[in-house]
């Protein structure tokens, strides 16, 4: 039986991604992204599911940096989930003034304008996850609220006071499915949006036009890049690596050609994963 870990507790968007991908296995929640990835590294679980990028707030840098600097794992799949943030209240709530609103920092940022206009006097408090925020409401009572999804409401017996409070409709998060020792991934049947490959490229120092030549190595081969992002190497100011998503599976012709061309320039290329990309659709809830 496959052992799957995820950023918990129950009621997080990560758990929603897990439920969409897997219909069998043993599932373990972790309090943080590093804890989940460390469990994969130690072999305590076979597969980890962690947030990778949000359409509004951008990349989850903790996930990227941990995968690059702390563990040796491959991305074997990704799932894009529409993020619908709702204002969740205690089941006994009856119109009391909300003094505090809890959620993950990304969730609060995604709802900034709504909170500013509707609850300017409420204290905004960060939690480790949206699922944990829902638990806090149960603990603290009717004068506080949480930002989270419908699953968090169901898991904790909360009511959705106001649905869809995020500032932008096109709010999606990509979740990475990672393994240390690759094994068959048993997932539900989903249509595959595309096949992707993610590589890490490091550049030599003081090389004029190096990034241009890196991109050219993909461009003249007509390889479409859907994302390129720089992150610090953590070895000193000005030292960066680049994460590049290529919209095609790894092959034995184009990618080795790119690698050889980049190595001739003094660059290095590391394969981080070649994988299917899935998408999930979630219907909008109704107020309770």
Task: Compute the average pLDDT.
Answer: 89
What number of domains? 3
3D shape: globular
| CATH topology (fold) name of the largest domain | D-Maltodextrin-Binding Protein, domain 2
| CATH architecture heading of the largest domain | 3-Layer(aba) Sandwich
**What's the CATH class of the largest domain, please?**
Alpha Beta
Rg (CA only): 21 Å
Name the poorly predicted regions.
284-288
List keywords for this structure.
single chain, 288 residues, alpha/beta, D-Maltodextrin-Binding Protein, domain 2, Alpha-Beta Plaits, ten-stranded mixed β-sheet, five-stranded mixed β-sheet, 9 helices, 33% strand
Structure explained in plain terms:
InterPro entries: ACT-like_dom_sf (IPR045865), ACT_dom (IPR002912), Chor_mutase/pphenate_deHydtase (IPR008242), Preph_deHydtase (IPR001086), Preph_deHydtase_CS (IPR018528). Residues 3-180 form the Prephenate dehydratase domain. The protein has 288 residues and is an alpha/beta fold. It folds into three domains: 3-83 and 171-180, D-Maltodextrin-Binding Protein, domain 2 (3-Layer(aba) Sandwich); 86-162, Periplasmic binding protein-like II (D-Maltodextrin-Binding Protein, domain 2); 192-274, ACT domain (Alpha-Beta Plaits), CATH 3.30.70.260. 28% of the residues lie in helices and 33% in strands. The protein is built from nine helices and 15 strands. It has helices spanning 13-21, 33-42, 61-69, 105-110, 112-118, 130-140, 150-156, 210-219, 254-264; strands spanning 3-7, 26-30, 47-54, 58-59, 74-82, 86-89, 100-103, 123-126, 144-148, 159-162, 172-179, 192-202, 225-232, 240-246, 268-279. The strands form two sheets. Strands 1, 2, 3, 4, 5, 11, 12, 13, 14 and 15 form a ten-stranded mixed sheet that branches. It has a five-stranded mixed sheet with strand order 8-7-9-6-10. Helix 1 links the parallel strand 1 and strand 2. Helix 8 runs antiparallel to helix 9. It is globular, with a radius of gyration of 21 Å. The chain starts with a strand and ends in a 9-residue tail after the last strand.
């Amino acid at each position: 039986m496959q052992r799957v870990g995820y950023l918990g507790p129950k009621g997080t968007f990560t758990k929603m991604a897990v439920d969409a991908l897997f219909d069998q296995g043993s599932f373990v929640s972790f309090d943080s992204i590093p804890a989940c990835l460390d469990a994969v590294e130690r072999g305590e679980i076979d597969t980890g599911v962690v947030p990778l990028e949000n359409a509004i707030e951008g990349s989850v840098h903790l996930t990227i940096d941990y995968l690059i600097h702390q563990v040796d794992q491959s991305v074997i799949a990704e799932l894009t989930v529409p993020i619908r943030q709702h204002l969740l209240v205690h089941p006994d709530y009856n119109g009391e003034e909300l003094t505090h609103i809890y959620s993950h920092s990304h969730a609060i940022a995604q709802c900034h304008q709504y909170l500013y206009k509707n609850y300017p006097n409420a204290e905004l408090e960060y939690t480790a996850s949206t699922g944990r925020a829902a638990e806090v409401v149960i603990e603290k009572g009717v004068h506080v609220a949480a930002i989270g999804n419908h699953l968090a409401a169901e898991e904790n017996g909360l009511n959705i006071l106001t649905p869809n409070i995020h500032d932008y409709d096109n709010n999606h998060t990509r979740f990475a499915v990672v393994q240390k020792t690759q094994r068959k991934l048993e997932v539900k049947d989903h249509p595959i949006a595309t096949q992707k490959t993610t590589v890490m490229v490091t550049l030599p120092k003081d090389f004029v036009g190096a990034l241009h030549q890196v991109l050219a190595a993909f461009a003249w081969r007509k390889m479409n890049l859907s994302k390129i992002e720089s992150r610090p190497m953590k070895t000193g100011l000005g030292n960066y690596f680049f994460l590049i998503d290529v919209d095609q599976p790894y092959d034995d012709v184009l990618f080795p050609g790119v690698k050889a061309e980049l190595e001739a320039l003094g660059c290095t290329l590391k394969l981080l994963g070649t994988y299917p990309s899935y998408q999930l659709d979630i219907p909008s809830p109704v107020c309770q």
